[in-house]
Structure formats: structure tokens, C-alpha cells
Amino acid sequence: MTSQSQGIHQLLQAEKRAKDKLEEAKKKNGCASRKEKRLKQAKEEAMAEINQYRMQRDKEFGLKQSKVMGSQSNLSEEVDERTLGKIKELNGSYNKYMEVVLKQLLNMVCDVKPGIHVNYRATH
Length: 124
Known about the structure:
By secondary structure, the protein is mainly alpha-helical. It has one helix at 2-110. Helices cover 88% and strands 0% of the residues.
């Protein structure tokens, strides 16, 4: 009978050890679950920070781009202004000197003075 009681006693001890191991495993799983939750939370925080940084950089880029594009449009407006000014200046000059130049041209064409050219050589 003692062997039976020893067997029962060993069986109870083995059962107790198994129960203790199960409790320990549950505690570890609880820690692992907390770690997983913390890792997930850290990941979410990191993603939020990354998104915030990305939005900030996109905003800065947009401002720089608008400055550059704005200054380019200002340059094109300035070139257009200068071009129109130069065209007006040339048109004014044309209108101012047109009569004088036409008179000189007509005088040269209409007042022909016949004569022998200085480079002409007599071949006789």
C-alpha cells in the first residue's frame, strides 16, 4: 500500500508542478501581451509622428515652390512689361522719323543727276 500511496503522492506532486507551470506560463503570456500592446502603441505613435513630419515638410515644400513659381511669374510679367515698353518706344520712333526718312529717300530716287561713274574707264 505504501507503494500506492507513494504513487498517489508522486501523482499529486506532478499535478501540482503542472499547475504551477501553467500559472507561470499564464503570467508570462500576460507580460507578452503587455509587450505586444506596448509595441503596437509605440508603432502607432511613430506612424503619427512620421505623418506629422511628412505634412510639415510638404507644407514647407509647398511654400518654397510657390515662392519660386511666384518669382518666375513675376519675372515673366516684368519681361512682358519691358517688351511692351520697347515696342511702344520703337513705334513712337517710327512715327516720328517716318516722314523725314521718306522725303530723303524720295529725293535720292527722284533727283537723278546723270554723270559718268568714277570707276568707268574708257576702252577706246
